[in-house]
Amino acid sequence: MRVIFGIGNPGIRYEYTRHNAGFLLLDYFAQKKSLSFIETTGEYFQAPGRIDDLDYALIKPVTYVNNSGIAARQVFDKYNLPPEDFLVVCDDTNLNNNVFRVRLSGGDGGHNGLSSIIYHLVTDQFPRIRIGIGSNPAGENLADYVLSEFSKSELEQIQTTFNKGVQLIEEFVIGGSKKMLEANSILMKSENQNNSSTNN
What we know:
This protein is of the alpha/beta class. The protein has five helices and seven strands, in the order βαβββαββαβαα. It has helices spanning 21-32, 68-79, 112-121, 142-146, 152-199, and strands at 2-6, 38-39, 44-51, 54-61, 86-92, 100-103, 128-132. Helix 2 (68-79) crosses helix 3.
């Protein structure tokens, strides 16, 4: 069993906000795989799936971003997971819009949701996919920025990059975090080659 845990805020009010980039990718993945999120006895919704006889679950907590670790701990204990089988997907204001960054471990990078997960799991040795949402404009409060909605054009742009996210999650389910990291390197090389060809 492998788990893909999205960070975001529940409810229609926050559905298309920048802080919910992780939820949006999980929703996109679920749609591609014809999965449905169902309520659980824990503080999260779950969409179970299978690829090549390998079980996985998409998780969307209802604890709000700053308390993501509460749901993470519940899921961690339920499935008795090793940290490397627990993939976190979240937004990142330190990355340009639509840029994906894959890491096998590390700190919270100033993200309150990651900080909560690290605190409750008592480890930072879990993989994560960070989705760039750009930094807040000069003069705009960071909290206001991450809770602002994507514009229609921004939403369309970020969703075009979600196919990469789907590939990375598939690789994680099939081969684990190291396989996902290898796939990300291949995708990045391909993107760089395409960009070089375009510029030439």
